UniProtKB/TrEMBL annotation:
Record Pfam families: SdiA-regulated (PF06977)
Signal peptide as annotated in the record: 1-23
Name the UniProt record assigns to this protein: SdiA-regulated family protein
InterPro entries: WD40/YVTN_repeat-like_dom_sf, YjiK/CarP
Keyword vocabulary terms for this entry: Cell membrane, Membrane, Signal
Location(s) in or outside the cell: Cell membrane
Alphabetized Gene3D superfamilies for the sequence: YVTN repeat-like/Quinoprotein amine dehydrogenase
Any one cellular-component term (Gene Ontology): plasma membrane
Main location: membrane
Length: 287
């Protein structure tokens, strides 16, 4: 079967499902503040009552605090952290937050960074960030050839003292391949360890990974695409894609960019604003 025909067969089910009753409707949706047009990362406070949000390239070096209905509580300026291209938020068991500054559309960055910060306690002081840097050993050219543009990333999560970074495929022709890297959650510079890979699907608009999270129990991983969730469970070891896979399609008007688990059966998802639609915080059931 030709690559072209495979692409058609994989693409049309995504289109039909996202436009049909088979796509999951949100349990709730709330408009985000006008300042949050390009949400790129979500995290939930340990008590589950507050939401942390960041925005990507071209936006202020700020962390935003909202309630569960999307109303702004406060925002916090970060020191020692520049928004080169912030793409996701992760959180460890102690409640520390991590900002993934590893957006790399052109696959030419040599300054891939993760910022660690203590979650705000309500004070408006600047948040001081600690810096962790890393590189992909498999990338030898900056940028590589167009068929090897595999080193952008918009998704990661924290697990057992490490970050798991899932790359965003920009290869031409598009292959749907996402790489999974493991990086120690420790200060310093690290060589990321390639622990797995995953073929999402063959449509470049729907099948690029834009967000990720791990459930509170550590037993589920969610990867987010444009209107699609890939849910992995029953996995062992670092390569979670070797577990059971469930695909869930979502009704959302624009590019879905960030996901965080509320519990084992529910997630929050944020999308960006596009032509005055979107810019919302959605609650979806996974059941």
């Amino acid at each position: 079967m030709s690559v072209w025909l495979k692409s058609i067969l994989l693409f049309f089910p995504l289109v039909l499902l996202n436009c049909s009753p088979y796509a999951q409707k949100p349990l709730a949706e709330h408009k985000l503040p006008k300042t949050l047009k390009e949400s790129s990362g979500l995290a939930l406070s340990p008590d589950g009552k507050r939401v942390w949000i960041i925005q990507d390239q071209g936006n202020p070096d700020k962390l935003y605090e909202l309630d569960r209905e999307g109303k702004l509580i406060s925002d916090y300026k970060l020191s020692h952290a520049q928004n080169h291209d912030w793409e996701d938020l992760a959180q460890d068991e102690a409640g520390n937050l991590y900002i993934g500054d590893f957006g790399n559309n052109d696959n030419e960055r040599k300054d891939l960074t993760i910022y660690k910060l203590t979650a705000p306690n309500g004070k408006k002081d600047k948040l001081k960030a600690q810096k962790i840097t890393f590189e992909y050993p498999q990338q030898r050219k900056f940028p590589p050839k167009k068929e090897d543009l595999l080193f952008d990333a918009e998704a990661f999560f924290y697990r057992d003292g490490h970050f798991f970074i899932i790359t965003k495929n920009r290869a031409d022709p598009f292959t749907g391949k996402a790489l999974i890297y493991k990086v120690p959650a420790q200060a310093g510079h690290h060589k990321a360890q390639l622990v797995g890979s995953f073929i999402t699907c063959m449509d470049q608009h729907s099948c690029r990974i834009t967000g990720a999270d791990i459930s509170p129990s550590g037993k589920q991983v969610a990867l987010l695409g444009s209107g699609t969730l890939w849910l992995f469970s029953d996995f062992n070891g670092d390569d979670f894609t070797q577990g059971q896979l469930k695909i869930q399609y979502l009704q959302a008007p624009t590019q879905t960019e960030a996901v965080v688990f509320i519990d084992e059966n529910t997630v929050l998802i944020a999308d960006e604003e596009n032509h005055k639609t979107g810019r919302k915080l959605y609650t979806y059931s996974l059941e």
